[in-house]
Specification:
This is D-arabitol-phosphate dehydrogenase. With 350 residues, this protein is of the alpha/beta class. It has helices at residues 40-48, 91-94, 132-135, 138-151, 166-177, 193-204, 218-226, 242-248, 272-277, 293-301, 323-328, and strands at 2-9, 13-20, 28-37, 53-54, 58-66, 78-81, 84-85, 105-106, 116-120, 124-126, 158-162, 182-187, 209-212, 232-235, 254-257, 281-282, 311-316, 335-339, 345-346. It has 2 domains: 2-140 and 292-339, Medium-chain alcohol dehydrogenases, catalytic domain (Quinone Oxidoreductase, Chain A, domain 1, Alpha-Beta Complex); 144-282, Rossmann fold, CATH 3.40.50.
Amino acid sequence: MKGKSLVGSKGFQLELRERDLPTPGYNQVLIKIGVCGVCGSDLHLLSHQADLTPLGHEISGKVFQIGRAVSKVKIGDDVVVEDKTYCGRCTACKNGHIELCSDMHDLNGQSGMGEYICVHENMLHIFEGITPEEAAFTEPLAVCVNTYMTAQVPLHGKVVILGIGPLAIMCAALAVHYGASFVACVGSKEGTKRNKIREDAALAAGADTVTYMSCEHYKETLKLRAGGPIDAIIVTSPPSTIKEALDLADYGTRIVPIGLDLGENSKVQIDIDRIIMQKNTIVPFIAEPAGKFPLSLELIRDGVVNVKELITHEIPLEEAAVLKNLFHNDNGVIKVMIKMNKERSIGGMC
């Protein structure tokens, strides 16, 4: 039996490959994928990666086949897949530092944008009461949950989120849920079709205001709106915007960068003296492992984060070539889902 999977490289070069399906081994499970979200990291790979590489890690699907000694799931279960999870056995894990695990289970070079994937059972979480499309948000929402916890925002704290993409919008919803008194999102450029639809989504998620780096005196205006010192700045935008975060930071502000570039624009020069004298803390976060999958599923199921409203396009796997046009032009895109059936819905081709 064979299955198709998507790989890509810079220039949005995409190739749909067919491969023999693996037989799940000890503690392994073969998943029939239903939906995979397009992540910003996929877009960076399609801009910078020289060689064809697997795409997609925001996965929901059904258990199709199980290997020996599998006990956590059964055939037919609806599941979401962690792209990386800790082993629980290495020294770092045993010392309580799962984020430093030296033997993580991962996707082993398989594409989430494909028909099937074979993974360790510890990477799976059963879901119910939500759609497969909503469930596919579990991984990026888990990133946001971990990011917000890393930011250590106090109750009634003031939060600024750089970026107005899906991660920023979900972080805004979490900030409201966890009791922030002021939440602002900052986009790059005002007046684009894409940013307008994202601005509306951020406000609907609970942000008090949305402004843009292109606006004159936006920092001064934002500080006036905040009405007091900013406690935390979450940087979901490209690494170069860390300078904007430092300019916005007040005495003691905690800054959490999670935006990647995967190219030359990841290199940023910053003023260390200023960081020391202002007692700012910069704590980068990477979702390996993301963790918090059960909590994220609960937040989706309870409607705390209305992920369904973020889906603007659903594209069949066989038509993934439209991604280049979708993201290179000024289209009203928030979140794109790749579906393994042949039906296009919602935004369709732009």
